[in-house]
């Protein structure tokens, strides 16, 4: 049976001796193909095709079909195979059809300007059967195509070319020069492509966001791992840097600043207020941080500021301490407008400092020499309990005290004479500094006073001279409940003695304070004390 179709014809061959075997020979647009029908498979099977690929003959890919560099056919963007089953058999002459109609095709031939164009910019030559059109610019060429419902594509290089009804022989090139053709699409397809673009953009944004989250988690876990390296150095909490930064409101509430760093107030989630010290000084930060972690991590005493935790981020070192509500001792002794401390409070503060020093010198596994005992490093909690702070200058020595500190450390006015003379530094250097602080606690005055002449007067020496002359009133601040000012100033002068031989240890000072308290109580009840 022979049948004729537009642009071709076909021949169906039936074999009487093989009723189950049928062959179909088709000639279409210069392409010949032979297919066989198999009842066993229930479909056509391609036997041979000539030409064998789109590179060997024209019209191989049909209308709106494009020849790829590998010799296979594909549909132009916005089109799909007219006969998918034939395309699966490798027979592409049926070509491609629009996925969506043009706007003029759905409006009774009325031309609308809602159609869009897709650019094919890597073509080898131009498609078959173009029509020249007079146009001054590419925009005029485009408008000319849009105004004609049967115009399916345009190109503008040296002139305007239009294609009507169909596109044939669209071939993608493998090397320049390339040609550009704009293929007309339906208006609704542009919306669909827009939605696809939005979907792709959303997917990319989601992928980028996921990557950022994963990177943040990785950096967060890396920060934790960095902190965990120090976890074995003491029973301390390890805080992520982001949490400390959030707790301190980006380090905005500054409490004070010392020689080794700034201190900020913060509030950890679910806990009380804390004080965060950010160490500074690139040359000493790491060494200082490790020393404080190893030392303070195992030190737990009522009269020592407790280290709660720490964190490391790059070169940043953060120490998290318990918060002291009443600040430092100097703000209560020397600041104008601060309330005067009663004798009982001053006694408790002095006793607390003595107990704290006793623990540092004798209660720890290794003797800890603070090296910078002064009112600024004595903090007071809500109950005015004294706690020694800032071990930034601490030096660990063995109990044999054979090692010596060779570099002067501390604050002028509180330094023991052996710092200047070059003698070996022992725990009694802290005892000397404690004596100076004790004089300031009793007198309410700075140990070093600047005179109007510009010179300085060392108050402990001046007070000792006044006491020797019997002038007690000028040596005390006049605070409430003064017990025997002469004996108290004499007691304060003992640890500040120039000779280390006369300086008692912190443990003995704690016992001496207890005895002195008993004598003060007896004195207040009019018991006569021995002269």
TrEMBL record:
<dbReference type="Pfam" id="PF00954">
    <property type="entry name" value="S_locus_glycop"/>
</dbReference>
<dbReference type="InterPro" id="IPR011009">
    <property type="entry name" value="Kinase-like_dom_sf"/>
</dbReference>
<keyword id="KW-0067">ATP-binding</keyword>
<keyword id="KW-0472">Membrane</keyword>
<feature type="domain" description="Apple">
    <location>
        <begin position="104"/>
        <end position="187"/>
    </location>
</feature>
<keyword id="KW-0597">Phosphoprotein</keyword>
<dbReference type="InterPro" id="IPR000719">
    <property type="entry name" value="Prot_kinase_dom"/>
</dbReference>
<protein>
    <recommendedName>
        <fullName>non-specific serine/threonine protein kinase</fullName>
        <ecNumber>2.7.11.1</ecNumber>
    </recommendedName>
</protein>
<keyword id="KW-0325">Glycoprotein</keyword>
<keyword id="KW-0675">Receptor</keyword>
<dbReference type="GO" id="GO:0005886">
    <property type="term" value="C:plasma membrane"/>
</dbReference>
<keyword id="KW-1003">Cell membrane</keyword>
<keyword id="KW-0812">Transmembrane</keyword>
<keyword id="KW-1133">Transmembrane helix</keyword>
<dbReference type="GO" id="GO:0030246">
    <property type="term" value="F:carbohydrate binding"/>
</dbReference>
<dbReference type="InterPro" id="IPR003609">
    <property type="entry name" value="Pan_app"/>
</dbReference>
<keyword id="KW-0430">Lectin</keyword>
<feature type="domain" description="Protein kinase">
    <location>
        <begin position="249"/>
        <end position="531"/>
    </location>
</feature>
<dbReference type="GO" id="GO:0005524">
    <property type="term" value="F:ATP binding"/>
</dbReference>
<dbReference type="Pfam" id="PF00069">
    <property type="entry name" value="Pkinase"/>
</dbReference>
<keyword id="KW-0547">Nucleotide-binding</keyword>
<dbReference type="InterPro" id="IPR000858">
    <property type="entry name" value="S_locus_glycoprot_dom"/>
</dbReference>
<keyword id="KW-0808">Transferase</keyword>
<dbReference type="InterPro" id="IPR008271">
    <property type="entry name" value="Ser/Thr_kinase_AS"/>
</dbReference>
<dbReference type="GO" id="GO:0004674">
    <property type="term" value="F:protein serine/threonine kinase activity"/>
</dbReference>
<keyword id="KW-0723">Serine/threonine-protein kinase</keyword>
<keyword id="KW-1015">Disulfide bond</keyword>
<dbReference type="InterPro" id="IPR017441">
    <property type="entry name" value="Protein_kinase_ATP_BS"/>
</dbReference>
<feature type="transmembrane region" description="Helical">
    <location>
        <begin position="198"/>
        <end position="218"/>
    </location>
</feature>
<dbReference type="GO" id="GO:0048544">
    <property type="term" value="P:recognition of pollen"/>
</dbReference>
<keyword id="KW-0732">Signal</keyword>
<feature type="binding site">
    <location>
        <position position="277"/>
    </location>
    <ligand>
        <name>ATP</name>
    </ligand>
</feature>
<dbReference type="Pfam" id="PF08276">
    <property type="entry name" value="PAN_2"/>
</dbReference>
<keyword id="KW-0418">Kinase</keyword>
């Amino acid at each position: 049976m022979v049948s004729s179709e537009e642009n071709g014809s076909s021949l169906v061959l039936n074999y009487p001796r093989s009723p189950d075997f049928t062959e179909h020979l088709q000639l279409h647009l210069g392409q010949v193909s032979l297919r066989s029908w198999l009842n066993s498979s229930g479909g056509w099977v391609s036997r041979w095709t000539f030409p064998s690929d789109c590179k060997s003959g024209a019209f191989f890919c049909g209308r709106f079909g494009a020849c790829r560099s590998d010799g296979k056919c594909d549909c132009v963007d916005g089109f799909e195979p007219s006969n998918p089953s034939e395309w699966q058999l490798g027979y592409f002459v049926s070509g491609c059809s629009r996925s969506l109609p043009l706007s003029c095709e759905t409006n009774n031939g009325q031309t609308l300007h809602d159609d869009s164009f897709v650019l094919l910019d890597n073509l080898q030559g131009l498609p078959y059967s173009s029509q020249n059109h007079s146009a001054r610019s590419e925009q005029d060429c485009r408008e000319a195509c849009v105004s004609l419902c049967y115009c399916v594509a345009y190109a503008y290089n040296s002139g305007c070319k239009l294609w009507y009804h169909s596109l044939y022989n669209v071939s993608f090139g493998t090397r320049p020069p390339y040609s550009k053709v704009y293929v007309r699409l339906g208006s609704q397809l542009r919306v669909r492509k827009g939605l696809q673009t939005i979907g792709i953009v959303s997917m990319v944004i989601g992928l980028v966001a996921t990557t950022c989250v994963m990177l943040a988690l990785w950096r967060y876990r890396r920060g934790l791992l960095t902190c965990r390296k120090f976890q074995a150095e003491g029973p301390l909490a390890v805080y992520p840097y982001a949490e400390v930064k959030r707790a301190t409101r980006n380090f905005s509430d500054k409490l004070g600043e010392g020689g080794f760093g700034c201190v900020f107030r913060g509030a950890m989630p679910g806990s009380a207020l804390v004080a965060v010290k950010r160490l500074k000084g690139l040359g000493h930060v790491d060494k200082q941080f490790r020393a404080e972690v190893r030392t303070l991590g195992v030190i737990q005493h009522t009269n020592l500021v407790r280290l709660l935790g720490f964190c490391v981020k790059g070169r940043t070192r953060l120490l998290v301490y318990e918060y002291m509500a009443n600040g430092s001792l100097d703000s209560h002794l020397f600041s104008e407008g601060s309330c005067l401390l009663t004798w009982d409070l001053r006694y408790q503060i002095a006793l607390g400092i003595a107990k704290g020093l006793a623990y540092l010198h004798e209660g720890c596994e290794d003797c800890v020499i603070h090296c910078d005992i002064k009112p600024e490093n004595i903090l007071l909690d809500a109950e005015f309990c004294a706690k020694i702070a800032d071990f930034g200058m601490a030096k660990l020595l063995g109990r044999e005290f054979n090692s010596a500190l060779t570099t002067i450390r501390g604050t002028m006015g509180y330094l023991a004479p052996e710092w200047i003379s070059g003698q070996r530094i022992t725990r009694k250097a802290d005892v000397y500094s404690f004596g100076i602080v004790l004089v300031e606690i009793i007198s309410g005055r700075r140990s070093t006073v600047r005179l109007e002449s510009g010179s300085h007067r060392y108050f402990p020496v001046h007070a000792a001279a006044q006491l020797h002359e019997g002038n007690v009133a000028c040596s005390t601040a006049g605070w409430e409940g003064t017990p025997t000012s002469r004996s108290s100033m004499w007691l304060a002068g003992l640890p500040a003695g120039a000779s280390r031989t006369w300086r008692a240890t912190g443990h003995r000072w704690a016992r001496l304070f207890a005895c002195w308290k008993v004598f003060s109580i007896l004195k207040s009840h009019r018991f006569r004390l021995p002269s």
